[in-house]
Amino acid sequence: MKNLLFLLLIAIFCSTESFSQVKRQSENRPFMLKGEVIDGETNMPISKVNVEILGGQYTTTNMSGRFSISAKIGDELVIKSDDFVTVYYTVLKDDFITVRVEKAKGESEPVVAKSPKSTTQADFSVYLDSAKFFLKKDAQKSIEYVTRALEPRRNKTITKKENSQAFETLGDINLFWNQPDLAVDNYKRSLQNLPSTDVSIKLAKAFAQNKNYQESISAFQNLLKGNLSAYQKVEVYEGLGDTYKAIGDGVKSVFNYQKALDAAKENNISPKITNLNSKIGEAYAQSGALNEAEEYFDNSLKLAKRENKQRAVSEKNKVADFYNQNREYEKEIQLREETLQELNTMGNGASTEDEALTPQRQNYKIANAFVAQEKYQQAIPYLEKSIAEADKQEDLVVQKDATRKLSEIYRDIGEFDKATESYQRYVEVVDELYVKKEQEISQAARFSKEITQKQNRIASLENDRKLNESRYKLAFENQELIERNSQIQKWVIGSLIVIVLLLIFAAYAQYKNVKQQKFANNILALKSLRSQMNPHFIFNALNSVNSFISVNDERTANKYLTDFSLLMRSVLENSEEDFIPLEKEIELLELYVKLEHFRFKDKFDYKISVDENIQMNEFVIPPMLLQPYVENAVWHGLRYKEEKGLLEINFQQIDSETIKISIIDDGIGRTKSGAFKTENQKKQKSKGMGNTQKRIAILNEMYKDKVDVKVENVFENNEGTRVELILKKD
Fold this sequence. Notes:
It comes from Aequorivita iocasae. Helices cover 65% and strands 12% of the residues. By secondary structure, it is an alpha+beta fold. Strand 11 and strand 12 form a beta hairpin.
């Protein structure tokens, strides 16, 4: 009886997952979302408000405060303006929305009083102080202030010291926002303008964070050869310890941490003493020296309690993790209980930078400790607390993990109804987390792009400054020569140069415009053809599904629909791409042929062979290019054959730059296939083949004969069809 219940539970889980996938696909259709933005206090409409979909469409409100934008269920709508607090709205349904906004009240920016005699220096200081003020709040705004500090102004000269400070601040911004590669470049630029020990230490840390470990080690070791203050010496040895720990060298890691600890004790640098005891404990734990690790962790716990609650809580969590790794679960549970109590007393004052220092995460880890001891009943209350707290804090990651763990516990103790209920909640959380992660990825990509653009702008400003300095020097040296020339000569020469430049510019602009217009037309044509290919393909595929379901049992139909949904997902994912990797096209083709064979088992067999020498990652192909030829082979060749036919698809490498794709069938051939068409079918043109030929023609025009296609009969009696495509790498 238990086995039967367990099988029933698994079936329910699978059906829930399938329903979730179907639901997610149905919600992925775009629609025109309409709404309005109004003032929360006056209820008056607000015009010219930025409205955008993260990673997608953009628009603004009209004079009536209304907007219309293409969106999908699950998209995150961002409504922002300098005049009010940015609003984030998740699209849950196709309905008119009203967004109420509040005036921005944020913290005031730092202000530096300007003196008429030192306006230039005051401008630079104001902008750099503002950049530091927003460093941990708004990366883009912070970088914008650095840009404004470096922008050329009248009667202004940026000194090397100021340049160094500006690029150091940029490096600090990059390092805080986890862009170590940009941080390395900016710290190097800072040092080029003005050598500094503090910046050199930051550069060494940035190397380590960017996983340039050898460069980091070399930089720290070079710093030890110079004159360092006591605090800098501690930082250098600590940085070396961090780097050696990152590459798994426990001995050198502990050695350098110990050096740093000795220096910190000698100079009474209390915060570093606590941190270094903790880091030595971690290094010993990583090396397997558990007794030594426990001794240093005990020290760090005692020292952390003397500092503040936040530091004590952080250290307890770290030591609890150590006990978990060593399976000392009772000690772990005790520390986490203490951590929970202290977090509750701290309330909103608890730091959110460490994700582990939250009630939901601590409850989840306590539950895991009980599960590891097979104390399931004791784990359940902590998981329920973790889920409730995570739901309140909108922590979907912990909510997902805790809900799944709770479902597994109920399953293991035989309470299958509760296990099913928990698993259904888990599926719902996974769906929500899936949407959120997609939005975060899109937002992160956009954030990275915008930061890079601002970084390039600053680099351009520095180059412009150097160029201007060179021009000023050259102008000064040639001033006497320029003064000897007559005004008429200057006017004539200048006029000729301007005329020639204008002619060259006009000719170049005309040529570029024609070329861009032609390319844009081709891109538009390709998108149009792709937009026709997908409905055509889906229509034919749905006809196949409908026909198959009408003659088969429900279980087989469900299996067919599952494969069909996978195919549809692949088609839709690739629909916006001009080219996709050859490997993806082969996977899509295999799935399509599998579906057609599933329907026409008695009509044909198939064989797909891929040359082992083909480097899949080096070749790309327009999506859905091969499918129409395969569809033609099945529907117009093999389907009408009386005996069982054969479909062969071969991928053969001709040379390192070219591959040949052959689609061969021994069907009735093109001549006989035409005779089977009805009068209505003869009047209609084949959308799939026609669009494919047009796509190939446009692509060959744009990319210089990238694809070559040849169609011929296989046998002398006009039966069978062979399609050969020659695909070139570039």
